[in-house]
Amino acid sequence: MKRLMLKTLVAAAAVVATGLLPGVASAQEKTFKFALQNPKGHPLEMGATKFAELVAAKSGGRLKVNVFAGGTLGGDAANVSALQGGTIDFVQLNSGILASQVKAFEVYDLPFLFANAAEADAVVDGPFGQKMHAMLGEKGIVGLAYVELGFRNITNSKKPIKAVDDVAGLKLRVIPNKINIDWVSALGANPTPLAFPEVYAALEQKAIDGQENPLSVILANKLFEVQKHLAVTNHQYNPQSLIMSKKIFDGLSPADQKIIQDAAKEASAYQRKVNRDKSADDLQELRAAGMQVTEFSAAEQAKLREKLKPVVEKHGAALGSTLTDIQAELAKLRK
């Protein structure tokens, strides 16, 4: 009997040593890589850092997330590919860029889709946004939460943009996708697709005249050093997706998966608040840094919408039910 008990204890010890005992996998330590394009101090980096802190706190320090900001692990396309392969664990990027994986994500890049941030929150946090993230599963991606980059504006080094027609002739950097190329072309400007880490140098070397981004991006990346003019156009709102490698996610215990999901949700709310609280200050800081700021009149804003309407119609037709579904959600919100 004693020999049998001894053999049982030895066998149990061997199981523990090899990590095969139920529950042992969930107690293992793990370190993750998190890639994003904006630098330290930007609200997106602050959100990523908050996520890392929450994951560590919820796991008792077992799970550690190292944040690689400022495009240090490459551009968005390279990051997504590495995530699918499991060599990067988390990526944060404009949701529209995921159209290269699932075409429906193009809807997030349509000009003037959302009237305000509250509309955007309701849509991306609701059934529509969750359905969109669920589509990524077959591409080896888990959609965890939405954060935000915010509303985009146009800068350039050549002239003030006081009216829609002033955009014509400018060579503008755009996110590399068809919608952004088309809306810049619709304004008579010359679109130049570039990965974000290349933008500052291209502006500095005058390879391009300008670019378009939210105020927080212009400030945090010091684009005011190489851009004189800022036009507050709010022509496009960018929800960002916090995504994870499905390969890595599926290898976690259910308990650790929940830690990751809960931390993402909490970090999402934190990041949006930080970004919105900073918005007014960002504009003042850009003025103080020497940027000449112009804002469109109501008539010019209406003209801008009208000029971009054909782009929305063209790409909207190809999106089919994705566009009609999001429009239905927006119509409910606007009643």
From TrEMBL:
Pfam families (UniProt xref): DctP (PF03480)
Keywords: Signal, Transport
InterPro entries reported for this sequence: DctP_fam (IPR018389), TRAP_DctP (IPR004682), TRAP_DctP_sf (IPR038404)
Gene3D superfamilies named among the record's database cross-references: Bacterial extracellular solute-binding protein, family 7 (3.40.190.170)
Cellular component GO terms held in the UniProt record: outer membrane-bounded periplasmic space
Keyword Cell wall biogenesis/degradation: no
Signal peptide (residue range): 1-27
Keyword S-adenosyl-L-methionine found: no
Protein name: TRAP transporter substrate-binding protein
Organism: Ideonella livida
